[in-house]
Amino acid sequence: MDIKLWLKDSFSKNKIPDWICPSCESGLLKVVAEQFHFEETVLSASWHSHDDWDPEFIVYVFSGMLKCTNCKDFVSFLGKGSVDHVHYYDNIQDEYFEDYNDVFIPLYFHPTLKLFKISSSCPEDIKNEIIESFKLFWSDLPSCANKVRTSLEMLMNHFKVKKTYLQGGKRRNLSLHKRIEEFRNQNVEIADYLLAIKWIGNTGSHTGKLEKIDILEAFELLEHSLNKLFDTTEDKLKKITKEINKRKGVRKRK
Question: By the 8 A CB rule, do 83 and 102 touch?
Fold first, then answer.
């Protein structure tokens, strides 16, 4: 997972981040120039008459289409924009210049971009919940974190970690924290990762302050955990190694 890529949330019409196509998961997305539209909001336009008005006060809304360089599929997106005041030095003219550039921030993609590649062996319900969290990453970080937290509950269900316990003759629900501690009996290493993700999810659930880097770190931990839990490549290689070493030669073929 490339955290630096997803921290680049703003773009210009002629230069966008290296967003990967959600359909083929290999090609890059490019703006379809003739289908990219933006307008200044009415409120923003009304500010032009103010004495202290500056181009940096401008607020845009935009919508557009992206096209994959590989599979040629389309992604629609929309969001907001503004004007950025830039300074630069021209070596040829040996002089400083200033300019204004239109910049845009996406708030929604359809189909949503996949911030990391989910293991193909991951159960479909967990995969869908994570993709729902991807959708919210662009516009609602607390809700995004909450979706990530829910995916952990579903992960505990998949590994049949108990949900309840008896206390005073009554059955009570186990917290996610307790369930992850129970999961520690199955996998100590991954339990630590999941606990860290849970703390970030808690911040979202309790309306704490979240930044994109917090969610991206949760995604990075989640990606690693899912790969460890559902990618059988390492187990397969261990089995092959054990058989070869036991036979002191090539494996027996059927």
Answer: yes
| Strand boundaries in 51-184, DSSP class E | 59-68, 74-90, 95-110, 164-167, 170-173
CA distance 234 to 223: 16
* C-alpha 80: how far from chain center: 19
Per-residue model confidence as pLDDT tens for the chain (254 residues): 899 999 988 898 889 999 999 999 999 999 999 999 999 999 999 999 898 898 889 999 999 999 999 999 999 999 999 998 776 666 676 677 777 889 999 999 999 999 999 988 999 999 999 999 999 999 999 999 999 999 999 999 999 999 988 887 888 889 999 999 999 999 999 999 999 999 998 887 666 688 999 999 999 999 999 999 998 777 777 878 888 888 777 777 76
- The pTM of the full predicted model, rounded to 2 decimals, is 0.83
Q: How far apart are CA 63 and CA 72, in angstroms?
A: 19
Report the alpha-carbon distance of residue 35 to residue 37 in Å, rounded.
6
Q: What distance in Å separates the CA atoms of residue 242 and residue 235, rounded to the nearest whole number? A: 11
Containing H/E element for 179? helix 176-183
Q: From residue 18, give the alpha-carbon distance in Å to each of 26, 115, 214.
A: 11, 12, 21
Distance, in Å, from the CA atom of 125 to the CA atom of 151, rounded to the nearest integer, reads 9
For 204-233, give one letter per residue: b (16+ CB within 10 A) or e: bbeeeebeeebbbbbbbbbbebbbebbeee
Given the structure tokens 């966008």, which residue do they identify?
A: 16
CA distance 66 to 57: 27
- DSSP structure string for 53-84: --GGG-EEEEEEEEEETTT--EEEEEEEEEEE
